[in-house]
Each structure stands twice: as structure tokens, then as C-alpha cells.
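User: quick one, fold this
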Amino acid sequence: MSSNDSHDPFFRVVTSPAFHRDHIADLLAGRCTAIRVSGFMPEAQCEEILQALLRAEFDSYGTERVYPSVMRFGVGVSDHRHEGKVTGSYWPAIEASRKAWSDLALPFDPWEFCRTGLASHWPGTVAVGRREGREMEPGVAREANQGFQVHFDDVTREFSERLLDANLVAQLAFNLYLSVPEEGGETIIWRHRWQPADEAHRLPRSYGYAQTVVGDAEQLEIKSVKGEALLFDPRLFHAVRPSQGERRIALGFAVGLTDTGDLLTWG
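Assistant:
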């Protein structure tokens, strides 16, 4: 942050034992930037998922768009986007992903566990979003050992058509950390949302931007721990630093607030 700038009191991280309604409302309204809940998932359950994933075969995002390489287990809808529309390859990919997750033979559904935790104090429904009447992918496991470039996530800009059957009025991002490195792997969030001039900083053929896009905007650095859940506003520019040592594996999904007050998730 520039010495000439004053601190934004709403640019802050809330630490809580659970995802309370008031905190989520504050996040949606821009009165805070992120909510972190330590011990969201017990370590034993984290370890069950982690060990199953370590035996699984991860795919990588296409390096022509995502570089450095990020590994993933599951399907993200952005992988099936062309000219702002969802391609027909999305639904077959979901069917293959569901089989792959089923083959892990986990004794519980990690995505349902996460949704239940979000719903514990929320007055509306928390459910997987639907498109054309069909349930979307509930989430994706990502291994970002080399980090993520500076970027933002906003389905209203990424897709030229309505992504879900419901009307979305806000978007958040959820991550549950299964494995974190001793050094690196921090999430960095800048107090800067996309504006047209930012496209001059976009990296060629990439989802990401040069860090010059955020200039001297105020930033937050979040070093998460195993079992912690993080909910934040992904429409702010953010990045992940490269890891050193242990692998960085997290479960993640988008969360949309509908005009009826429900929270819908998708991978």
C-alpha cells in the first residue's frame, strides 16, 4: 500500500469458529474481504481425503492458458468455455469426474460436508447449482504447488450467457485446505477490481495478469493451515505464491448468492 493511501477498514479478514450469517452478509456486502474458519474439517477427515487423492491421477489445466502448471482432480466449468459459452463437452466431463470421485471410495461426501458447514447459520438453501436443469460439478481439488498468477474470477464477465438457472447477484470463492507447505502457498488479495484499463496488463493467452495490474493497491496475505476453510471475494484480484516443500492441495468451488437469498455452488 502506498504511504499516501489510507487503510480501508472494510478490507479485512474475519476469523471465526464457523461461517456465521452476519459474516457472510458482511462479505457479500463488501464490509470484509475474507472469512477464515480454522478446524472447519477435522484433521482425520482431511487426511482421509488427502490420502485418497494422493493415490489418484490428477490432470493439469492446459498450459496454453494456465501457466505455471496447476494440477486438478475434477472438472471446472471454465475448462469448457468457448467464446463466453459453456461447450457440450462439459456434461460428459462431469460424468467422468463423478465416477473418478466415486472410485476414491471415501466414507463421506467432502462436498456435502463443506456445503453443510456453509449452511449451518445461513437462512437460505445451500446447494449445488443447476444449469439447464442438470446439477453442475460440486467442486474441484486443485494442487497449485507453483502458485496462481494474479487474476480475478467473475462469471458475469467470463460467460456471455447466464451460467446457472438461477439469477446470481454476487459471487464468492470457497477453499478447504487439505495439505499446506511450511513455506509459501500464501493467498494474496488486492483491494482492486477489474476495470477496462487492466487488460493492458493481461499476460498473452493466459487467464492471468502481470502484477503491475494492481499497482500499489492495499493487499492482504493469508497463510492457511490444514483443515481451514477460507471464503473470500474472488472478484478482487488475487494470487497464490509458489510452495516450498509439502504439496498444496485444496478443495474449492464458487459460491453464488441468488436473488432469492440462496447460496449455490459449482466447480
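User: anything notable?
Assistant: The radius of gyration is 18 Å.
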